[in-house]
Amino acid sequence: METRRQLFNIDPGWCYLIAGLALLVCAAVVPEQAKVHRLREELAALKSVEASGYRRLQAYAEFADDVEAGEPALLRRLAASQLNLMPGGTTPVLMATSIDSTVTDWVEATLPESNFAYMPFADSLLARWVLGPSKLWLIALGAFCLFVGLMMGNGTTKSALGVRAA
Fold this sequence. Notes:
rod-shaped; single chain; 64% helix
């Protein structure tokens, strides 16, 4: 009588091995991915601050150029706000609200606000497990799954460890 051998022998130990490896890889990779995300967000924030600084520098340079060029409207505004002087023959209709504001306030008012928004790290159950206080339990579970997977094998995984089947 001819016996047929199966081409593939399904071993339940492989499921445990794969699950254990997946848990251990996640425990190693996800925290580093969170660090990379945090550093990228810090870099984006610093780039936003740098761009804001360049816009501020450009606004002050334009203001200095207008003062150097003798822009008449700017000189009148400066005289009215800083020296409390009005050109002859003019009477103020309303009390200027810019009298108490400084020149730097004028320049800062022309700058657009920064539109940087911090994007938090993706919140998932796996990320909470790996980044939270239960990380050690997850590593222990992964190691246990590896152990169970190696011990459940029908000879193929045991031979990798050097264990002889009885």
